[in-house]
Design brief:
The chain is α/β, with parallel strands linked by helices. The protein has two domains: 1-36, no CATH class; 38-155 and 194-221, Rossmann fold (3-Layer(aba) Sandwich). The protein has helices at residues 9-16, 20-27, 40-51, 68-76, 88-97, 134-144, 164-182, 196-206; strands at residues 59-62, 81-85, 102-105, 117-122, 145-154, 208-213, 216-221. The chain has a seven-stranded mixed beta sheet, sandwiched between helices. A hairpin with a 2-residue loop joins strand 6 (208-213) and strand 7. Helix 6 (134-144) packs across helix 8. It is globular. It starts with 8 loop residues before the first helix and ends in a 7-residue tail after the last strand.
Length: 228
């Protein structure tokens, strides 16, 4: 549910009719007061899953938003942590919340890193990438990790077709497709295209070894140097 201090219906409408970048710039000051922020239960589960594989050195939060994932990295990394996002507004909020972290403004489809991190995470961002864009995203994360590095991606199980959640997601995606068909610039945010089999296949194609724990995909870069 939205907090009374969260965005108004008018503010949400303006954001939805903007580009993804501009929409998040506008939403950033109130983002953590909306249901769009990743729940603490998912963040805690990811930290627990990673704790059994670490400790790690440097960590990267891909599409960090206001920085919820940086808190996960702080628990499992004994080196520096970095957030990357293309929204200046979201980065400003993340800097205020995590002053000890480093930040880079960049498009996640063209990450400017090469073997600089031991672990990467991403929360709530996959719906902003069309299926055809996932390979570039995952290949960039693969390059950013050192050999043996781990990428943790929160990806819940799809709700059953008989559930309210299933039809809510289907309705949301339909509304977004209609919106993008008649309005420019587009606002890419779809829930249904990012299912586990397709995501896992794209991760493997990028070079990762993939396994899952409930709600979380753990993709590991080979401990052999990347010679592609």
């Amino acid at each position: 549910m939205f907090s009374p201090q969260g965005p108004t219906l008018r503010e949400l409408a303006v954001q939805a009719l903007s580009s993804v970048e501009r929409g998040y710039d506008l939403l950033a000051p109130k983002f953590d007061l909306t249901p769009f922020r990743t729940p603490d239960s998912i963040l805690d589960a990811t930290a627990e899953a990673l704790s059994g594989l670490g400790p790690f050195g440097a960590g990267l939060d891909v599409c960090c938003g206001t920085g919820a994932g940086l808190g996960v990295l702080a628990k499992v990394c004994d080196g520096g942590i970095t957030g990357v996002d293309f929204s200046a507004g979201m980065l400003a909020q993340a800097r205020a919340a995590h002053p000890a972290a480093s930040f880079v403004r960049a498009d996640a489809r063209a990450l400017p890193f090469a073997e600089g991190f031991d672990v990467a995470v991403s929360f709530g961002a996959l719906g902003h990438f069309l299926p055809a864009e996932r390979p570039a995203l995952f290949e960039g994360i693969f390059r950013a990790l050192r050999p043996g590095g781990v990428f943790a991606l929160a990806l819940g199980s799809p709700p059953p077709v008989t559930s309210v959640a299933y039809w809510a997601a289907a309705g949301f995606d339909l509304v977004m497709r209609v919106r993008n068909a008649v309005w420019r610039p587009p606002f890419v945010m779809y829930y249904r295209p990012n299912q586990l089999p397709e995501v896992s296949a794209d991760l493997r194609a990028a070079g990762f070894t993939v396994r899952t724990v409930p709600g979380i995909v753990l993709a590991t870069k080979s401990d052999q140097p990347d010679r592609r």
